[in-house]
Write a structure and sequence with these properties.
Number of domains of chain A: 1
Shape of chain A: globular
Number of helices of chain A: 1
Order of helices and strands of chain A: EHEEEEEEEE
Oligomer: homodimer
Mean pLDDT of chain A: 92
Distance between the termini of chain A: 11 Å
CATH class of chain A: Mainly Beta
Keywords (chains A, B): Isomerase
CATH topology of chain A: Jelly Rolls
GO molecular function, one term (chains A, B): isomerase activity
Pfam families (chains A, B): Cupin_2
CATH superfamily of chain A: Jelly Rolls
Structural class of chain A: mainly beta
Largest interface: A-B, 31 and 31 residues
CATH architecture of chain A: Sandwich
Protein name (chains A, B): Mannose-6-phosphate isomerase
Organism (chains A, B): Deinococcus irradiatisoli
């Protein structure tokens, strides 16, 4: 990545929901933007913490015992091994950071491919 | 970190410039907010890439051959080993992500202490 990343400009190219697009890398992690709406599969990552920063909209993370509701400018890290189900009532834009190669569903067989943007 | 992080609320507690405050951790990295104004020391990190996301204001990263100007919603990763000098003409708020323990000046002897917030 030689140039700066304008997150809104990158997101303008994303047409589908729940499809993370890699916009950069650092220290072995992928920086990804994603648009979401509706309910994602309940899953967990056994080896990696999961970073969510809301850029627009509103994201609910359904954890085993509670819900975390994130609005623009708010972030949450789901610790490794903790089951979570992302949900968005309205179209929501996120910055995600995960170690490169982490399957978005927690399972390589069902994960969305990583697309470069 | 058990709760969500509201970046603006965290930054409201930061009184001094160039003093990173850790607001969370994930995958061996610190998530930090910082307020900056003026010119920081020119430095480099030999082992780690350096993530900058501008939340408010405007940040210039002076690199060896060029300058990167970041506005809110824009990020840049300074690759490891590349000298850089951050500069902000106006008060600017940033999200920084670095492997835990990385000295902010590139030199443990001159680095600001990591403060938890």
């Amino acid at each position: 990545m030689n140039d700066k990343v304008n997150l809104a400009a990158k997101l303008a190219h994303v047409a589908s929901y729940w499809s993370p697009h890699t916009v950069g890398q650092f220290n072995g992690c992928d920086l990804m933007v994603v648009k979401v709406k509706g309910e994602f599969v309940r899953h967990q990552h056994d080896e990696t913490d999961d970073f969510f920063l809301v850029l627009s909209g509103e994201l609910t993370l359904r954890l085993p015992e509670r819900e975390i509701v994130l609005r623009p400018g708010e972030l949450y890290v789901v610790p490794r091994g903790v089951e979570h189900q992302p949900f968005a009532a309205v179209e929501t834009e996120l910055l995600l950071i995960e170690p490169s190669g982490t399957p978005n569903t927690g399972d390589a067989r069902t994960a969305a491919p990583r697309r470069l943007l």
